Every structure is written in structure tokens, then in C-alpha cells.
Amino acid sequence: MENAVALAKYSFGMGDRFAQQGRAQLAACAKAAALGAEIIPVWNKSNREHMIVGSKPPSVRAEADAAVAALGWTKPYHVDADHINLGTVEGFLTASDFFTLDVADSIGKSAEPDAVDAFVQRHGDFGGAFGLTREKVHKAAVKYLFAAEDAGRIYRRIESARGAGTFVTEVSCDETDAPQTPDELLVILAALADQKIPAQTIAPKFTGRFNKGVDYVGDPAQFEREFLDDIAVIAHAVKEFGLPANLKLSVHSGSDKFSIYPAIRRAMQSTGAGVHLKTAGTTWLEELIGLAEAGGEGLAMAKLVYAEAFAHSAELCAPYAAVIDIHEASLPSPATVNEWSATDYASALRHDQGNPAFNANLRQLLHVGYKVAAKLGESYLRMVRECEESVARNVTENLFDRHIARVFL
Prior knowledge:
8 strands, alpha/beta
């Protein structure tokens, strides 16, 4: 399975809640290119994010195209319909050329027994690869075969609208309760191949917590072993099942996971594998930092966003309960924040773990608090535009210095 549209070896998913930072984001990839590293930008936005901020999928394409034109970017770039399913894909069909098929809700749903038996008959124990037995294959097929079939249904809808080979396909299994083991990943990839899905990236759930906007919570050494095992599984699956040669791992909620970036980098260096690192809300947080550092009305807007997020924390946190850990007692009161200087606000929010003023609880609350800015509407967007220099500088520095340079350079 090969594609006319092929995702490069190293790619970087960039989220932009309010479609204001496309040029600043692309500038980070341009800095890498100037140093000889090709990091392909992928602008990603989910249906949930569009619904919260009141935007439509074509706005992401417009932002990406405008940024590319402004910076004279001549390398590939993509627009990702992030975490779509059969019920949400329609609005993305024309504007996106990268589709993340989210099948997490289908994991654990039982496929037809005859389909499971046929899968086991077809693949057996995969020759005992990765410790698989026929019993393990059957158990994994019961758990994951329906999800693969669901991915097939979504893929075929996209293919019918856009044509084969004209888009990048990613399959996402990460938003589940339990991580996939390497042998389960092999079964998943075999099932995707059976569905004739030319997946170019696969996003499994890894061990540990990938909370929004903060560092990885878990054992980096265990993550590294798991990551290397998954790379080996992908290499085997490409050879055995005819999946695209550029198939690679995708790390979701990958922004700010500083403690595992060395592991990812070592794994790529030792195996020659690529990676897709998907980020999202880290850019929105840099907007707030940029507003604060601009002072005056910008700082006042940043303080207002925090006050409203604090007042509506339960509502804002509910959809993200599985991927945030906020200790409410460690959140400063809005009255306290209102007395902060620009430096105080930026120091509390910026992800600098060496700064004693950094507050991971505040950062997580504001990460999920973009709904507040969405409700503020044009008043928020006007302030972002007025503080463009400060905001853009922070966005670019964050993506390049704390993300791209640490993983890819």
C-alpha cells in the first residue's frame, strides 16, 4: 500500500484554537529547516474544538495556506481532521488532507464471531512473533477487530469522497483506559491491513499519563522500552502485511512531555524510525503568556481569562477529566492573580520546570479554559492581534526551543 500523498519521516502536529498563530507556528519549522532539519507541519483541529470555538474545518486550511504563503514555505504541509469518526468526518472532507481516524470508542466492542475466527485462521500466531500464541491472537482480535472494521468504514467514506492515495491516514487508539501491548499492536496493524487501510501513522496508548499541557507522568525508561518495541512491531507489520513503508508512531498529547523527549530522540537515532509528534493546546497557552507580557490591556485580558476559568473550572474540566490532574488547593485565587505583574503571570504559566513560580495546576486549568476566550469572542481576538509581536515570539520560541529542538535536532 503506497500513497501519492506521503507523510514525511518527521512531522509535527500543531494546534491553534483560534487560527491566529499559523505564521508563528510555521516559523518554528522554518527555523529547523534553516538548520538542515525537515520537520513537516501538520495543522490539527478536532471537531470538539471547532464546536467549542464556533469555527469550521475550512478555517484551518485557510490559516495554513496563508501562513505558507506569508513565509514562502516550499516544503509539504498538511491539515489534519483530528480525532474524527463516521459521525463527524463529513465537514472535513474537502478542507483536510490528513485524517486521524479515532476508533477508541469501538475498542472492546465485539466483532462477529465468524470474523474473529476468520482473522485467527488467516493469521494464526503470526509465526510466534513478539511472543504471540493463537490464544493471544484470538483474545486481541475479540478486543480490537471491531475497532479496525470501524476504521475501515471511516476510511472508505473518505476515500470515496477524495480518491485513493490523496490523503494521509492516521489511526488513533490512544484515548482508552489501558495501553496496547506490542503484540496487541501487531494484531491491530494486521487488522488494518485486512481492511486495506494505508495507514501512515498509528497512535497507540502508551504506559503512563499524558495529561494536557504538562510533563509525562510515569517511568521514562518503561516508555522507552515500549516505544522501541512498538517501532519493531511496525517494521515487522510493514514487511509482513504490505502496509506503507513510511508507517510510523504518532504520539498524541505530545506537547510538553519533556521527560520522554530524550527517549523518543534516542529511539529514532538507533532505529532510523520517524515520528509524528502531535501538539495542540500549548500554542493557546503561549497566546496567554504573550498577552500577559505585553502588559496593559493584554495583561488585563490574560487575568480575565484566568478569573473566568477559575469560576467555571468544573464545567471546563469535565470533558478532560481523564487527562488532567488539578489540585484545586494549589490554584491561586483570581484576587491573587489580579495583583500579579506580567512577569508573575508568565512565570506561573510558562512550562519552565526550573522556575519555582511555575504552577502546573494553573497551567492545566488554563489549558482546558480556551472556552472562556471563545465566549469573549472578538474582544479576545482583537487583543491577540494588538499584542501580535509578544504573542508570536512566545509561540515560535515554545514550539522550536522546547519541542522541535528537543525531539528532532
